[in-house]
Amino acid sequence: MLILVINSGSSSLKYQLREVGPDGTEPAEPVIARGLVERIGVPGSGVDNHTEALEQVDAELEAVLAGRTIDAAGHRVVHGGERFTAPALVTMEVIRAIERLAPLAPLHNPAAAQGLRAIAEKWPQMPQVVVFDTSFHQSMPEEAWRYALPDALYTEHGIRRYGFHGTSHDLVTGMAAETLGIPRDQFDAVILHLGNGASATAIAGGQSVDTTMGYTPLAGLVMGTRSGDVDPSIITHLIRNGAYDAEQMDRLLNKESGLLGMTGHADMRQVVDNAHAGDRRARTALKVASYRLAKFVGGYHVAVGGARAVVFTAGIGENSAPFRAAVLDRLGPLGIAYDAEANLERSNAPRVISTADSAIPVLVVPTDEERAIAQLTLTVSQRHGAL
Amino acid sequence: MLILVINSGSSSLKYQLREVGPDGTEPAEPVIARGLVERIGVPGSGVDNHTEALEQVDAELEAVLAGRTIDAAGHRVVHGGERFTAPALVTMEVIRAIERLAPLAPLHNPAAAQGLRAIAEKWPQMPQVVVFDTSFHQSMPEEAWRYALPDALYTEHGIRRYGFHGTSHDLVTGMAAETLGIPRDQFDAVILHLGNGASATAIAGGQSVDTTMGYTPLAGLVMGTRSGDVDPSIITHLIRNGAYDAEQMDRLLNKESGLLGMTGHADMRQVVDNAHAGDRRARTALKVASYRLAKFVGGYHVAVGGARAVVFTAGIGENSAPFRAAVLDRLGPLGIAYDAEANLERSNAPRVISTADSAIPVLVVPTDEERAIAQLTLTVSQRHGAL
Ligand SMILES: Nc1ncnc2c1ncn2[C@@H]1O[C@H](COP(=O)(O)OP(=O)(O)O)[C@@H](O)[C@H]1O
Ligand SMILES: Nc1ncnc2c1ncn2[C@@H]1O[C@H](COP(=O)(O)OP(=O)(O)O)[C@@H](O)[C@H]1O
């Protein structure tokens, strides 16, 4: 079967055309085509909106498809609010619900809805499934999702912790439990998704019980260009003294902070290289980022009632042995010991990098959100008899 | 000797006149007089500024002093910036430095400086000592005090973690180490100062290496009226969509959030009582506050390389057995076990409330910032030959 996986950003559209068997098995090369439409809505780009972007995808796929038809489409949607606690088969009501959640993700949800409507019009028979960044975290207990703010901010503005990267945290949780031979519903762990965006999730009984991102993906860890947590007063002070307005502050925190703000580079590879070459700012940034992450691991070890695994994933988590080492070097107080050689080995398979006597196993598990979306699209479509 | 301890708030001035021997020993009743001048600068209050407030204190003390003279004055000053790493004997240069730090504590530092100038004028011979909320935390390493923000925010605006409650954290650290018979310079611990304002401090080698308050006292734990940490985007979003301006947001986060925002009551006693009576909002607030605190304990256990004590202090920490229990019930993953009866006992003495087999001892240690300021005033004055 052919599944089209679509990831609509505010001004971009990434896609993969994937082959998957009706039982979920994949061929050796499951990705048949992939592509990226950029600068959507940017004057002069020739692509005015996500509907036109999908026309372009359609054209690009024609030769590849050679007459075959796409069986289903799976869409990554940033925000499912409190409405979506799992992936969903797309109906008009579902599209409208995604549009109604636009205040929570003003750049992303309307773009995703446009893509959904365009496909529903073009291929009305094709089942579509939406997979949300947030839905995996809807299992969090209230003490984890509530801010200590007046009720009205939650009841009137929907301000609460939602969490993101859910598809990845979910996938990696399952793979880590399987790797360790622990039934998922008994699996308590801390998952570290460290990409350009980064978040840690506390897993108890296989479910998300806390996560570092919050109302938006800004909160928590130090990221490529995002600050993560800062004293909230910093924002009100800089706005009140006239140094920044709210929009500039938003940009500063989301696009000009994190590794970029501290070192001039958003890319972890570059930061690690510069630190090795003696760059003081890069060294400081590595310390700040790894130290903050280590503290979250300690906090989530408490939150889950004692972790049975600490799991690294995503670009930095899978590939940066020096960054993993910087974090793990701090986790001795939890009884964690890692094997320096195993940490240096490169592989695409899930693997354990802790020593045999580590109180908590440490794993590296590659994530693959597109693969996860394709699988979910298949199972959700089948469950509804749409495939 | 007589030492006047002065705590200048933005619109208030609290004082204690204390008796202390030249070697620091205290009589059974060291507080000879205490008082509070309120509504300073409020039209119609009759007290225009902190200079006039001190006139009033002088008048109130006349009868008590009965001709004796005050030997020294010790002032609590909120912000010592990076300039002050310890209490200091007051000179004109010191007063000017405190005034220059006003941008960091616009309500508090100018008031404190006024008090210092008034006393220096009235009693030019009297040694004065300033004790800072921040100075104890100047030992933090850079990975703890730096935010992941562009450098300019630090270099131009002084934006970094400063931390507060330092006098209390310092005092309680020393008392806890002594109670456990551990040399202070080998003492690694987590100190929980839980009053109306609340902060946790990570102690390594007897020194502060991290603390939950940040650039201002807003950050970190859930407090009486402060939110503690929130996703910074909440602020920019609510300002950008016009729901609040920066000043309103500042008030909301500092004065209308925390326990008050969640339950209608800022006072922990009331919140605990309401929770027992079945109030759902009060129960949620207790869970949010205790859960967040437990996570910080886990994080700081990692930060200090393995804590040798967890110490409760201040109004809530010393008096609220139910709140301590709610926190400690979550700390099993650190090997912490507490004695439910010992937790219920009331006492003014430092005491251990963990079981003999707890991996980390848990203590309750009463704080007394005024006593600490008086002691520091004595030793700093003596060291400079001013007493
Ligand atoms: N070999 C490597 N060493 C260190 N960092 C790496 C390596 N490969 C990728 N990364 C880092 O991974 C990050 C991107 O992760 P990724 O998961 O692709 O991000 P996204 O959040 O955009 O999906 C970048 O900071 C990049 O530098
Ligand atoms: N017996 C008690 N039980 C529970 N909370 C108490 C008790 N006594 C005092 N508190 C709480 O302590 C807090 C005030 O602490 P305190 O250290 O005096 O504050 P601050 O010095 O920061 O103003 C209040 O929330 C109050 O309810």
Automatic annotation (TrEMBL), chains A, B:
Gene this protein is translated from: ackA
PROSITE patterns registered for this protein in UniProt: ACETATE_KINASE_1, ACETATE_KINASE_2
A GO term for molecular function: acetate kinase activity
Catalytic activity: acetate + ATP = acetyl phosphate + ADP
Native organism: Citricoccus nitrophenolicus
Family listed: Belongs to the acetokinase family.
Record: active site: D133 (proton donor/acceptor)
Note accompanying the cofactor annotation: Mg(2+). Can also accept Mn(2+).
InterPro entries in alphabetical order: Ac/propionate_kinase (IPR004372), Aliphatic_acid_kin_short-chain (IPR000890), Aliphatic_acid_kinase_CS (IPR023865), ATPase_NBD (IPR043129)
Subcellular location: Cytoplasm
EC code(s) of this entry: 2.7.2.1
Site (Transition state stabilizer) residue list: H165, R226
Cofactors named for this entry: Mg(2+); Mn(2+)
Residues bound to ATP: K14, H193, L194, G195, N196, G197, D267, M268, R269, G315, I316, G317, E318, N319
Pathway: Metabolic intermediate biosynthesis; acetyl-CoA biosynthesis; acetyl-CoA from acetate: step 1/2
Keywords: ATP-binding, Cytoplasm, Kinase, Magnesium, Metal-binding, Nucleotide-binding, Transferase
The protein's name: Acetate kinase
Binding-site residues for Mg(2+), renumbered to this chain: N7, E369
Function: Catalyzes the formation of acetyl phosphate from acetate and ATP. Can also catalyze the reverse reaction.
Pfam families reported in the protein's UniProt record: Acetate_kinase
Assembly, per entry: Homodimer.
Metal-binding among keywords: yes
Binding residues for substrate: R76
Record-linked NCBIfam families: ackA
